[in-house]
Amino acid sequence: MSKADMGRRYRLYPTPEQHDRMAGWGHTCRALWNLALEQRRYLYRQRGITLMGSAQCKQLAQARADLDWIADLPSECGQRVVANLDAAFLNFWNPDHPAGFPARKKRGRHMSIPFKGQTLVVRKLNRHWAKVKLPKLGWVRFRLSRALGGTIRNAVVSRDGSGWHISFGVHTGRKPDAPNGKLACGVDFGVAASAFVSTETEPRRMPQTLKPNERKRLGHLEQRKARQLTYAKKHAGGKYSNRLRHTIAQIAKLKTRQANRRQDFTHKLTTDLAKNHGIVGIEDLRVKNMTKAAKGTMDAPGKNVAQKAGLNRGILDNAPGERRRQLAYKCRMYGSLLVAVPAFHTSQTCAACGKVDPDSREGCGRLFLCVHCGHEDDADHNASIEIEARARRTGGSVTNSTRSTTVRVPAARRRRTREALPATHG
Ligand SMILES: [Zn+2]
Fold this sequence. Notes:
Distance between the termini: 33 Å
Structural class: alpha+beta
Number of helices: 11
Oligomer: single chain
Number of strands: 13
Radius of gyration: 25 Å
Bound molecules: zinc ion
Largest sheet: 7 strands, antiparallel
Helix content: 40-55%
Strand content: 15-25%
Order of helices and strands: EHHHHEEEEEEEEHHEHHHEEEHH
């Protein structure tokens, strides 16, 4: 069966009864994930057994007979949770995947309930509304903000600070565009300037994600939360009051709004890059290494902890991993080629004469002044031109049928290829 190749997310409008039941299921899914994870860790540590999902699904079926709170959750959801845990472990074991060890899910984070796509029925009500039939819940309405455009393969009901949503994995069957034959560009993603495109003279900056009054309100809410937390600890034995819960919900709402605006900017930027350029060159950065905490350990405390934390916030605010993920599928869609070039010395290389010299970045300001030929430019623009040049050099030779160099090869296939090839190829 053809897989989902596109995601669609809509706002869900459950009735109060559906809301309560879904919230209960959300907690059940989280508890199941944590239980299944703990069981795998325990068995591996104590007896060296690697437990996989198939065995746990059998136990889950038994647990449903004994425990009402598990039995209330549709069985397909529980099975999907275990299957997702399997996928998380496979990613962790895959040396080419950045995922770390599967983490426990904390209470109060986004909750999500996975469903199987085959069982779902969606019916359009009118131009703006549709409804989806979920097991045990019946029909739930959602805002049809755009067409589904394909057959549903899976669905996830989730809740964040702004309310309930449903995401469908959809098989659209859309074929990638033919090479669009447009100009190449290089992009330098910075902390100060969000993105500098080599063909432009001004950097593209992300607008403020919170308006001044929202920022002020967030500050007040954080203060109130701290005060209410102290009170809860001192006088209520750590029990959260309804007011405290309300404050936390208000903060989550603002933070979700902020995250949505950031996502909106990133989507517009990556669409424009992929649609209007033939080759998009970016730096091949390992986000994890870049943002590793500077804190260090007790014995070896890190240097410049505060500065590094600030830089980390800057880097994560610009979401490099997410940008790359979007560029990868959009470039394939719009017939352009994404090339991730090695990041060594892009900021110290002169775009005019090609000489590498750290002295050209005297004082580490925003200015690049070549000590060899006197070429003068904005440092990020200079770097973006170097990235474009590197992308052109590799871009010509790697053109293949999928028109993307960053398509992730499944782990099994990679391993096979590596074994088949001589060692020099790695
Ligand atoms: Zn120069």
